[in-house]
């Protein structure tokens, strides 16, 4: 099975018999709209409602700005303008309720008030705006860029703030409200997606997002010097520490940190190398993959059999070892929305940044 066939099925085959044969299989990135259309159709069938709502079954059948942004970004990769437009229209109708143009973070179908909390989630806004930029370029659609510009301006104004530990540096707030306290700022490190921030800055002129991406990479280096990156940290004038207010293990949120760094071309980042060493130690064929760990010791607190998490582990290990062919399992659309989506992201990151990590 060649690399293109792999991308259409996300199946894993044994490596070629010789290093030379494996190296010869490397190639430039391919157009996923052709190479992996079956995978995209499987994801849509399970996780995308006909009206354009991305459904998170494990979260009360909720939809959120993260899911809409993730789904729309995938639609640009798979050249699916119709699905993109449905997701965009649903999101604008149901989540674009704030006066500043940002999205309310969650929609609950069974609630009398489906949007009980109008607060935003900056990672959802970031991916939504990034998807709009890519869609505007891919399909020459000016209204998508207009909306992306308004979102980038609002993100810069409300969610990029001064770092209390380093006044010349910035932080990316998780939301416009609720995370700045009297003595510290609560930050979610997985909300930093440097590539998205840089592409959005370049397209919209909001250079503060570019600066924030670089500041975020340095903050992640600082955190990684102490161990694995936690889900949440608190930053004060004295520096950072594991959050005293929110979950501070390395959990389901922090699993995105190495993925986003690799996708952004930062595969040698300390945060990537740290989690790779843990995966190397504890991930074995046929066994569940760690999904919650103690940041300092790397002790595994929870695991999952979902293939999306194994895909992340395989990509991270391959990125650090400079191997040929990542241990990425076949795609299963019936896994929950979150690991299913992360598995597609791992596929895209390998295709764009580390083609040698695509299984051969």
Short summary:
This protein has 360 residues and is mainly alpha-helical.
Structural class: mainly alpha
Widest beta sheet: strand line-up: 5-6-7
Question: How many helical elements?
Answer: 14
Question: Helical percent range?
Answer: 40-55%
Shape: globular
Strand-residue fraction?
Answer: 5-15%
Element string (H = helix, E = strand): HHHHEHHEHHEEEHHEEHHEEHH
Task: Give the termini separation.
Answer: 7 Å
Question: What value does the Rg take, in angstroms?
Answer: 20 Å
Please report the total strand number as a whole number: 9
CATH class of the largest domain: Mainly Alpha
Give the domain tally: 2
Topology:
Elements: H1 3-9, H2 19-24, H3 32-35, H4 37-47, E1 63-64, H5 65-77, H6 81-94, E2 106-107, H7 122-139, H8 142-159, E3 160-163, E4 166-172, E5 185-187, H9 194-204, H10 207-224, E6 233-236, E7 239-242, H11 256-263, H12 270-282, E8 289-293, E9 300-304, H13 307-321, H14 337-352
Antiparallel strand pairs: 1-2, 3-4, 5-6, 6-7, 8-9
Helix pairs in contact: 4-14, 5-6, 5-7, 5-14, 7-8, 7-9, 8-9, 9-10, 11-13, 11-14, 12-13, 13-14
